[in-house]
Amino acid sequence: MIDVKHLSKSFGNHLVLDDISEHIHPGEKVVIIGPSGSGKSTFLRCLNLLEAPTRGTITFEGTAITDPKTNIDLVRRQMGMVFQHFNLFPNMTIRRNITLAPVRTKLMSQVEADDTATALLKRVGLEEKADSYPAQLSGGQKQRIAIVRALAMKPKVMLFDEPTSALDPEMVGEVLEVMKQLAQEGMTMVVVTHEMGFAREVGSRVLFMDGGHILEQNEPHAFFANPKEPRTIEFLSKVL
Amino acid sequence: MLSEFIQWLTDLGGRFHTAFIEGDRWKLYLEGLGVTVGMTVVALIFGVILGVVVAVIRTAHDQQRLGQRNFLLGILNILCKIYTTVIRGTPMMVQILIWGFVIFASSRNKFMVGIVGLGINSGAYVAEIVRGGLMSVDVGQSEAGRSLGLGYLDTMRFIVIPQAFKNILPSLGNEFITLFKDTSLVNAIGAAELTYEAMRIGGRTYDYMPPLIGSALMYLVIVIIFTGLQGILERRLRQSDRR
Fold first, then answer.
1. Domains (ranges, CATH) in chain B?
2. Does the beta carbon of A74 lie under 8 angstroms from any beta carbon of chain B?
3. Which of A224, A91, A76, A70 is nearest to A154 (CA)?
4. Under an 8 A CB cutoff, do B143 and A87 touch?
5. Chains A, B: CB contacts under 8 A, how many?
6. What is the CA radius of gyration of chain A?
7. Which of A67, A92, A169, B181 is the most exposed, fewest CB within 10 Å of its CB?
């Protein structure tokens, strides 16, 4: 579904991603873990070109998204993204946050989009917040809305960039619950996270990144039970 | 010495009477004030439109993906840079004289010439204000818009500009005040605004003090009223933040 070949990214002289090749299959739940500064967020942000790769190619369902001639907006409509800091639009109601993109991109009429928003909000238990503004919500509620906003575009893959890192501890659960549901419905997901429990329970594959490389990857149970690289063992001993 | 001062004070009433009441001259001041306010409003609207266009071009150019620079955008960006540099680097008085005596030397509609001069001047300053406002919006906002598949212009229009607007409103208010006072420069090309009328009445009555002091007070009162309104508006906007 997403094919990454020889991806490198540097900011100035600082090499953040060093020649990464990886393939993400439909229906997979890929969880990326690693220390801060390892390049995991940059890798994720390259997948929908929020960061422009310095070298290498990324192909999404046969479309070379790194090709300058590709209309990146069309590709992004099929890739949902959830950010660490939610990035809800503070100047709009929740309903408009959700319906703006589907309506403006002509994916749906306003009526269809409103119905979609209502249905999705019901699913995450926030239908009574439709006419509130983001500033009136808690962090956990904001992040659930952000997930719903991305889902309203009916994406084929969802990218999560540390979705629970900015949350108060008691709100982490409600967001992970929504993500688990999404995984059970078969959504293809790429998740950068520090939630090892989530990685173990929901992930179909865990990637460990450090220094701009994917050092090790495995199916989660094997990954956590017997990590092979010394760097992985050291990291896991600190976080588990 | 003291008797001279008392004499000056007693004459004062008569001088102001000549400058304002005699021959219903106060109507001329009001007409001039009307022209001044009209010019300010039209020039500001003109300046804001121009400023937003320039600011969007400049930020669009600066935010392009590396290696995918748009040639047309590059040219527009250079034109915008020349525009802001020239306008902000030359005195407003000289600009207005150039508009009135060089570019539109044969035009009789001094009101329009004044508006063009003021609006084009204001646009350069508004462009910098708006550019600062656009940059003050968290980059995560436009990333969120773009990640949903919205194009650059839609993201600006629905997400970034409305949020930037709130941040730039105070500076825009100050620009309005500056522009309002700067309309007095247009009297140099003979547009019949407040200062022009005051000077004309001063010339006719051989006494410049009452009309000039009077017009200064009129400018001051309007600025004080506007500053008050601005304060109320800003407090309202801040309240909606704390919702």
1. 26-237 (1.10.3720.10)
2. yes
3. A76
4. yes
5. 75
6. 18
7. A169
For A114-167, the pLDDT digits (tens) are 999 999 999 999 999 999 999 999 999 999 999 999 999 999 999 999 999 999
User: Structure pTM?
Assistant: 0.81
Q: What is the pLDDT of residues B92-107, one digit of tens each?
A: 999 999 999 999 999 8
Pick from B71, B138, B148 the residue to mutate for testing the A interface (most A CBs within 10 Å): B148
Largest Cα–Cα distance of chain B, in whole Å? 82
Q: Please report, for residues B2, B11, B214, the alpha-carbon distance to residue B5 in angstroms, rounded to integers and kept in the order given.
A: 5, 10, 21
Residues 6 or more apart from B4 whose CB is under 8 A from it? none
Contact between A133 and A163 (Cβ < 8 Å): no
Contacts of B145 in chain A (CB under 8 A): 89, 101
Q: Where are the beta strands (DSSP E) in A70-151?
A: 79-82
> So what's the ipTM on this one?
0.92
Place of tokens 């306010």: B37
Grade residue B240 by pLDDT with cuts at 50, 70 and 90: low
Strand order in the sheet with A2-11: A14-24, A2-11, A55-60, A63-64
C-alpha span between A201 and A115 (Å, rounded)? 32
